[in-house]
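Internal ticket - ligand job 317, flavin mononucleotide:
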Amino acid sequence: MPRDATDTDDMNLAVNMGGLPMKNPVTVASGTFGYGQEYNQYFDITRLGAVTTKSLSLKVRAGNKPPRLVETPAGLLNAIGLQNVGIETYLSEKAPFLRKQGATIIGNIYGHSPDEYVELASRLEQESAADAIEANLSCPNVHDAKTASGAVLVSQDPDAIIEYTKAIRSATTLPLFIKLSPNVADIQEPALAVQEGGADGVCLINTLLGMSINPKTRRPRLSNIVGGLSGPAIRPVAVKMVWDAARVLSIPIIGTGGICTANDAIEFLLAGATAVSVGSMTFRQPDAPMQVLDGIKTYLKQHRIERVEELIGAMEV
Ligand SMILES: Cc1cc2nc3c(=O)[nH]c(=O)nc-3n(C[C@H](O)[C@H](O)[C@H](O)COP(=O)(O)O)c2cc1C
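stdout (structure tokens):
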């Protein structure tokens, strides 16, 4: 597939995401892009600033029973339950494909203890199967010991965030990002915990908890009952959380949540994000990340802005 020559024209689209050089600020949201193979039919995935993988766990995970996806007004409720191929298959089949293409890889990982995250991060680094690590400490869909007992997720407990982040930090020299749950009263606390733990960046936001009931059957529409809301419905919440976090952090942010167009992505940059990820929108329009990228370039041209970095945190009040 030919590369788009305009990606290398005058405008400087490059950003430095916590030590990860990205040729542009656009990546994809974990879990909405698989491992890139299917989407490579729709566009050259190496045009992305980075490919972010589906959360990888030590073992293969089948995920929750269907139904696992429900459409809501301006959004999507999912309770996939972190279905993934597991680290071994990723290393033997998925990473070689991404490497062959020449993609920059953000390897998203999910575990049940600091040790599991440590092992996942170490394997990815040892096998050169990622250029940065994104640790998902925020998924609300899994019935692990903590959620089953009604206790909080790691991502909702600043002390636990520090513990997990420090452990992963000590296991890898790759840029390390922590992905946080928005299901908290104040996002600044967990965001500061990520920084204290020594990570290089924060990814905001994962899905917001939600549920939907069919009045005819009186049954929940998701087998898991509760799911995670994504899509345009959550964008204003996500933009505010990025803005809140950016005001107290010195490490950069990947902004995500309902990005459909370049203008949506630019909102996140203006609020303080350094990079953006396109998620649920790719289900409706597989080349949405490219539309977002091309739209950012047009915006820069129209506004005579030389470097995309000038937009970061540039909201005017
Ligand atoms: C079907 C689906 C699966 C997802 N799986 C993961 C996952 O495995 N790991 C993760 O960190 N986030 C996961 N997410 C959350 C997204 O990465 C993203 O944070 C969220 O959907 C908000 O972005 P969006 O509104 O653009 O989709 C998933 C989201 C969806 C819709």
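Auto-summary: Confidence is low (pLDDT under 50) at residues 1-5, 139-149. Residues 5-63+82-209+231-311 form a domain with the TIM Barrel fold (CATH 3.20.20.70).
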